[in-house]
Every structure is written in structure tokens, then in C-alpha cells.
Specification:
It is a single chain. The protein has 177 residues and is mainly α. 69% of the residues lie in helices and 0% in strands. The chain is built from 7 helices and no strands. Helix 3 packs antiparallel against helix 6 and helix 5 runs antiparallel to helix 6. The longest helix has 27 residues. The chain starts with 7 loop residues before the first helix and ends in a 10-residue tail after the last helix.
């Protein structure tokens, strides 16, 4: 994503690889928040689903705040959020997420998009956790990953009300970053 390039000098600093991972995680979280913001600013979701997704949106804001604090503590740049729907759609396509903002045909389309992106985010944390070295960042990443897995379950349950088995987060996380 734009704004996540790390200079060679930055990579030579102790903990620089973890910082670069944090920047990539921040980028994917900002994309997630952008998509929630876009979906919730439309009238595509029914009121009860909108209220539930608004709570998740608040969690995504908290994830970004926690990552921002860690990046600041490391003196690192925060990557910018997507500046437009077109750029967000480009980022979604780059992460192999089906569905495009501005083309959603109804509540199910919106929920499928949110679930797919939650899966990508969980996968991004899975990949990052395999490589992180800083114990504090590992704990933070695991906590955020668990929260995003819960989001995936909630969105899945909204797609298939009462079908708890289908709400269980995707078990074969591969990690796309």
C-alpha cells in the first residue's frame, strides 16, 4: 500500500523489521476502517445490522489507535489511509477481496465484503506474528487478531442467522499481507 515504504536506513535500526510490519498492519487496519466507514455511511444495511457494524467500526478505530501509539513510540511514519473509494478498491483488489465500494448491491454484498476483509486482516496478523520479535508487539498483534476473528464471526452470523457453525472464523488462515 502507498506510504508503507521503509528506507534502508530504517531497516538497519534495531526492531526495524517489527516497525515495518506494524506499518503494514496499520495500512490494512486503515483499509478495514475505510470500508466500515463507507458501508455505514450508506443506507445499505438494515438498522439492527448497522448498529452491530458500528460497534465493530469502533473496535477498528481502537486498533488503529493502538498501532499508531506503537509507531509513534518507535519514531516511525504512519501510513496514510486510502484517500478515495477508487484507491480503496485498488487495495481491496490487491488483497484479492471480492466486492467493490460503490458497487454493493445490498446488505449481503456489504456483509460479504466485510467478512472477506476481516479474513484478510486476520491473515495479515497471522503472518506478522510469525515474524515479530518484540514481546509487547506480539501481545498487541495477538489481541487485535483475536478481536478481528470475533468480528469475522459476528459478520458471518449476520450472513447466516442462527447458523453458528458458519459463524466460526475461517480455520485455515493463510495470511495475505
Amino acid at each position: 500500500m502507498a506510504g508503507t515504504a521503509t528506507t534502508r536506513r530504517e531497516l538497519l535500526r534495531p526492531g526495524a523489521a517489527d516497525t515495518a510490519r506494524l506499518q503494514r498492519l496499520m495500512s490494512v487496519e486503515q483499509l478495514m476502517l475505510y470500508v466500515y466507514d463507507h458501508v455505514l455511511s450508506s443506507s445499505i444495511l438494515p438498522p439492527a445490522t448497522r448498529r452491530t457494524m458500528a460497534q465493530i467500526q469502533g473496535h477498528e478505530q481502537a486498533h488503529i489507535g493502538a498501532l499508531r501509539d506503537r509507531l509513534r513510540a518507535r519514531g516511525a511514519r504512519q501510513p496514510p489511509p486510502p484517500p478515495s473509494v477508487a484507491v480503496a478498491n485498488h487495495y481491496l483488489a490487491g488483497r484479492h477481496v471480492r466486492g467493490r465500494l460503490g458497487q454493493l448491491q445490498g446488505p449481503q454484498d456489504a456483509l460479504y465484503l466485510l467478512r472477506a476483509l476481516e479474513r484478510v486482516v486476520v491473515g495479515a496478523y497471522f503472518v506478522a506474528l510469525r515474524e515479530m520479535r518484540d514481546p509487547g508487539l506480539i501481545v498487541l498483534a495477538a489481541q487485535i487478531m483475536a478481536s478481528d476473528a470475533q468480528h469475522e464471526a459476528i459478520v458471518s452470523e449476520r450472513l447466516n442467522p442462527g447458523d453458528i457453525a458458519s459463524a466460526v472464523p475461517y480455520g485455515l488462515v493463510q495470511g495475505v499481507q
